[in-house]
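Lecture notes, structural biology module. Today: joint structure prediction for complexes of two components.
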Amino acid sequence: MAEEAPHLLEKREKKERRTGLPELKNAEKGKVVLRFAPNPNGPMSFGHARGIVINGEYAREWEGELILRFDDTDTVVKPPLVHAYDDIPKEAEWLLGYAPHRIVIASDQIPHYYEHAERMLRSGFGYVCQCSGEAFKVFRVDKTECPCRPNSPELNIELWGKMLDGTFKPGDAVVRVKTDMTLKNPALRDWPALRMQDTANHPHPRPGIGSKYRVWPLLDFQSAVEDHLQGVTHIIRGKDLMDSTRKQTLLYEHFGWTYPETMYWGRVKVHEWGGFSTSQMRRDIEAGLFTGWDDPRLPTLSALQKRGITAEALRAFWVELGVTQKDISVPLSSLFSHNTKQIDDEAPRLAFIRNGEQVTLSGEHPTSIEVDVHPNHPEQGKRAFDLTPPHVWLESQDLGKGSLRLKGFADLHITDRTGEIQSIDRQDNRPIVHWLSEAQSVDGTLIMAEDGELIELHGKMEQHNYPEGTMVQLERIGYGRVLSPTVILFSHS
RNA sequence: GCUCGUGUGGUGUAGCUAGGUCCAUCAUAGUGGGUUUUCAUCCCGCCGACCCGGGUUCGAAUCCCGGCACGAGCACCA
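The predicted structure, tokenised, for the full assembly:
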């Protein structure tokens, strides 16, 4: 028993609550290789961030490497975008806090895939199939072998040549991996590895690639071969790719390779956004429905960045969700609360008066007032309000309250547009409101993205010299990011 | 239809591999209060969950069987 089940004899250690990411199986410090493989066919979305963060954090934790791989092997259905090849690495570095260790572009690796395809054909575990997709579907359902399956390696090589030289046209032939047509899972039966694409009419957008190749690998073949070439040890991906793992494992067995450890995550939806598709976003942006990839209404990484969501908040958010296979739907407030923790301690306070009404002060009062830039950090300095012209701006909503206290200044009673100073010290529990001196006010705009709409609130804003990109807290409104001296993009409350 | 996977509070998540120490963790949301001259931050409290039914066992969130629900794959897309 001691040999067969030693754990039964041991006293089990007290369980400790796990924090952070689940443990990586079979991982060795310094020898872990992970990859994140997006298709550069559109903006990096919120969802892509999960792939970057989870893989990237594991790489960090295990002192391993992270490969950023562009799976750009479809020029017709999902044509790549040239500038994505530049944008994605930058966004990945921003999000991770380090640059991916390696960048691999599938369209640069075609010769390697050809070489493996040929090896497959010569070794007899792959064949060129001239059945139509429709026809093959019948074989797959009926668990019967297609007539091309018994082709000799010699014939396969000959047919492969016809694919390469263009004798065959797209749709005429594909290369299949020979698995077993009686496999329980229909998805695994003799799956397609490479097909032809009309790159004359649909050239690959990268210079040097263009119409160079007629035959292109499909995801399962390309990914499997590339993972092996790069020495990937762990694959973490969506559970929609579970059957891909099984297909690729079959291919690895043919080649005599060992498949990496694999983990999956489920689908994530954001309450406020619902489902979103890269292709749809790309169409909408191209149609001018949005200002660009970073339009604050979009669930793209660049939009979130522009909106002032920090990389740290995004990382904390995704790590907290972990790597479970459940399909989940999360509220944005969860991300925002992480962001608040990141920015509040630094964010200077600023007044923004929506629907401003000017009020003239009457009675004795100082000619200038100073308040803290940050209530918890006096060392950040003071904000000065000059009251020589005795005019202040208040939000019209607050005006109706009659008696109120101007934050850090005085108790006021308002009738019409006149504010009678009743006391400089606080005398009672009247509501405290934010305000702005006429002398320090400028016309400002607060841009808010709500329910898919872009709303511009025009109001009176406190003068400031904060550079673009500064995260500020608008008193009683919420956090925002400085876009220009007079424009602030609302982040969240 | 076939195949695969997942079901813990409103939302996420820990615990499940090796059953007890779990009247079930943490976070977020909600709610009540404290600090604060912001409806911010911070602090304290409360609220609220093991999909259902059997079985094994002294003991089941955890193991077994059967349901049910939800999701995904079955593309010459990724």
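Point to remember: The CA atoms of residues 467 and 482 of chain A lie 7 Å apart.
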